[in-house]
Structures are given as C-alpha cells and as structure tokens.
Amino acid sequence: MATIGYQVIDKATGLVVPFLPGAEELLKPTSNIGQVVAEQKRQIAQDDYRQRIAKTSDMLRKAGSLVEQVEQIKAVVA
Hints:
two-stranded antiparallel ribbon
C-alpha cells in the first residue's frame, strides 16, 4: 500500500506545523472517507469563522466601535 505524507513547514522558524488542527488523525488510513471529509470541512469552517470574528473584532477595536469588558471586571465576575 502506498502512502502520501504531508508536511507544512513554517518558513520563519523551519518548524513543522499541522496544516489543520488534528491533521494527524485525519491523515490515518480509513474506510470511512465520508466521515473524514465531513470532519475536515467542519474544521475548516470553524477556523474560517474564528478568523473572520478576530478580523472583525480587530477592525472594530481600531475604529473604537468595539465594546469590551475590562480584564478587572472579568476577574470579579468570574
């Protein structure tokens, strides 16, 4: 059986980084390819959502339009 290996290397550090969180699990041989594809799509969608929220929050923060809790208040509430 032939296998294909994937590596993503960070050019700045030279370190190998996963191209998706949990990629090692997704790249294992399986007979449930549909489940693997569904999991990859879910992870990609979640990562995209997190990036969009972070970009939007950053943009609103820079514009002075983002209302955030102060760290001291967060500590008191928790």
